[in-house]
Amino acid sequence: MNAIYANSTHIQNIMTFCAPELKAEYLTESLLEVVNNQWKVDALESGRSFYHKLTYKVGKKYIKVMDSNVYADEIQSNGVFMFVDKNTGECYKPASYKAPAKGVRYLITQLANHPEVVDPYGSFLYLR
User: Fold this and answer.
1) Mean pLDDT over all residues of the chain?
2) What are the residue ranges spanned by the domains of the chain?
3) pTM confidence score
4) What is the DSSP letter of 4?
5) On the CB side of 108, how many CA atoms lie within 13 Å of its CA?
6) DSSP secondary structure code for residue 100 in this structure
7) Residue 6 phi, psi (nearest 5)
């Protein structure tokens, strides 16, 4: 049974056929795990006293990704980092705490495949 999950193509096929409505949430969670680990390592290696951490909440239409600064003794919330459409996987820059800005900036599949694009400040979400 473990041999089935060894190939990343099989995992993508499983997500496509078994739970397409959960694909955006699964990819968001995996992206957050990768970037959170990288940002924590970067902060420790550079000697900074805090690091950025992303969390998410699933709403009716969007997955809201939120940013926080983690210090040794406290966590400070910075607000919304981005919105991910649950059905299509489209990523949006936040216009406010409750709503995304117009215009798709990325697909969650692109970000999950290339997590190095995501920076702690959200600059990748601005149109160029």
Assistant:
1) 87
2) 20-125
3) 0.82
4) G
5) 25
6) B
7) -70, -30
